[in-house]
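Deviations from the work plan: none for this task. Representative record:
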Amino acid sequence: AQSVSQHNHHVILSEAASLELGCNYSYGGTVNLFWYVQYPGQHLQLLLKYFSGDPLVKGIKGFEAEFIKSKFSFNLRKPSVQWSDTAEYFCAVKPGSQGNLIFGKGTKLSVKP
Amino acid sequence: EPEVTQTPSHQVTQMGQEVILRCVPISNHLYFYWYRQILGQKVEFLVSFYNNEISEKSEIFDDQFSVERPDGSNFTLKIRSTKLEDSAMYFCASRQYGSGNTIYFGEGSWLTVV
């Protein structure tokens, strides 16, 4: 079955630390890849997405993600986190044959001021 | 920026009762979705809807669930006879026509079944 794995359940960082959140998926065909963020008390918001082209994708708020097809991975990175980045981050995959998204379990990021 | 809106934001219901969760998708969007997130678990796909019919549904979306687009603007999820395990955050989402388009989510409706 298709699945999305996020390796870290809860990450705690100090401000200005670098961030990398792992995401791996299991699907052999064409995929569209997404990272969503859910700030406390708010809805899911799109952070960035990859459909095709340059595998290094830049999103909002200084986030970027790199699609590595051979590793079935789409890791999220940010060079220097801020307290306002405290949120839950969800990786999602849309297999080419389907219209819906398959989500990972999410990674909670806590940034200490 | 246009938004997907959902009502109610929180509903508490007794087991066995019927619940209707309402959503107003973004106006020019043609695909509509319901997802749910049980506390502490991942966001799970329930159903997608296009051209006035269900296009995909998951194993979770059994006969207790139904969706409807009653008036061209609202998109509703009905749970006929709620169970304790239906307690979750239910997210409505929508997107434009075209497989590459982003899915936009509403703020969610918290359903607590007691």
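Chain A has no helices and twelve strands.
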